[in-house]
Specification:
The protein has about 230 residues and is mainly β. About 10% of the residues lie in helices and about 35% in strands. The protein has one domain: Fumarylacetoacetase-like, C-terminal domain (Fumarylacetoacetate hydrolase, domain 2). It has a six-stranded mixed β-sheet, with helices on one face. A five-stranded mixed β-sheet has the order 6-18-17-13-14, with no helix packed on it. A three-stranded antiparallel β-sheet has the order 10-7-16. The protein is globular. The protein starts with 10 loop residues before the first strand and ends with a strand. Keywords: Hydrolase, Metal-binding, Pyruvate.
């Protein structure tokens, strides 16, 4: 018996069906495109990938209207390829990673950049800038059998029709196979885990009234409107 009603299972839509993909955890890969690492003032040397997390219920279906979050005056967009894990495992070999992938989607790692920067400068975790309500708008997940590639393909984002981010999945520093394998060496991945694979250069701020559109070729598109401040 729970002491109060258990929260609803966080989930995402599946393309072309009424099915839902249940979310267990959201992992995000930091600085996984060289040009983005440079624009953030970091050396894009190919070191081991690092990760941060968002709560499962930070994920929201798109299209949607996202309330401008509290405590920030510098909300940034980050377009990303999203990988949905359907088969658990630990110490997964790179050659076996795709056997564990259920599907792929396009998503946004929305960031309270001023709070993240403050945390970085003070040597603190990024959670305050990354893990807030509705910080992971994600489009419907496409089953991996229908996905042409998670290794190549245009990834792009526009604000009010003006393209700001435009790259190719081939520009990833660590490929999907590599960073999922690395993650599985740290902990056991489980069905329902989501991996957001990093954003290309061109991140920037949005304000109330802005409309974000974006996509990954062959996988999907999304649309998010920024609503008034919470």
């Amino acid at each position: 018996m729970y002491v109060f009603d258990a929260p609803q299972q966080a989930s995402l839509a599946v393309q072309g069906t009424e099915d839902r993909f249940p979310i267990r955890r959201i992992f995000c890969v930091g600085r996984n495109y060289e040009a983005h690492a440079r624009e953030m003032g970091k050396d894009p040397t190919r070191e081991a990938p690092f990760f941060f997390t968002k709560p499962a219920d930070a994920a929201v279906d798109t299209p949607c209207t996202m309330v401008y979050p509290k405590l920030t005056a510098n909300l940034h967009h980050e377009i990303e390829l999203v990988i949905a894990i359907g088969k658990g495992g630990s110490d997964i070999a790179e050659t076996d990673v795709m056997d564990h992938v259920w599907g792929a989607a396009v998503g946004l790692d929305m960031t309270r950049r001023d709070l993240q920067t403050e945390a970085k400068n003070m040597g603190r975790p990024w959670d305050w800038g990354k893990a807030f309500d509705a910080s992971a708008p994600i489009g419907p997940i496409k089953p991996i059998a229908d996905v042409p590639s998670v290794e190549t393909g245009r990834i792009w984002l526009a604000v009010n029709g003006e393209v700001r981010q435009d790259a190719d999945l081939a520009d990833l520093i660590w490929s999907v196979r590599e960073h999922v394998s690395t993650l599985s060496k740290s902990m056991t991945l489980e069905p329902g885990d989501i991996v957001m694979t990093g954003t290309p250069a061109g991140v920037g701020s949005v304000v109330a009234g802005d409309v974000i559109t974006g996509g990954v070729d062959g996988i999907g598109e999304l649309e998010v409107k920024i609503g008034p401040r919470a």
